[in-house]
Write a structure and sequence with these properties.
The chain is mainly α and about 160 residues long. The protein is built from 6 helices and no strands. It is flat. The chain starts with 8 loop residues before the first helix and ends with a helix.
Length: about 160
Amino acid sequence: MPFRLYDYLPILLMFIVAGGFAVGNVVLSQFVGQRKRTRTKLMPYECGKDPVGSARERFSVKFYLIAMIFILFDIEVIFLVPWAAVFKSLAAQSPAMRWFAYAEMMIFVGLLFVGYIYIVKKGAFDWGEKARLEAEAEARALADLEARRVKQQRTAA
């Protein structure tokens, strides 16, 4: 089959339509949208939090812990997709291979489940009053540590 640039015309057309839709919406909002500039509208949007204080504010370790747990489980779940795609060909080889592949994946899923139960028991997903107070105490301690460090730098200079 020879290479023909004409075969890629629908893809180019799709990009043109998508770009035109985006540009059209931006231009349309400039003509139709309201122009009331209030203090609140001019403030930067900070993911639902009021933008108060420095942008260098420290976050609780709990935020990073949840992010790492999400990445860990997300990557491990991604391993299920290739296994599911290959399982049919493995099962066709022999009944013993079918049960081996199935048992292997069930051990993997079981270990994931044990890890999940461990995380839940440790309270990693607990965002109740106690967790909030711990996060605030940790933030205060970090702020005090930073203030002491800045004070030492000023006295040393």
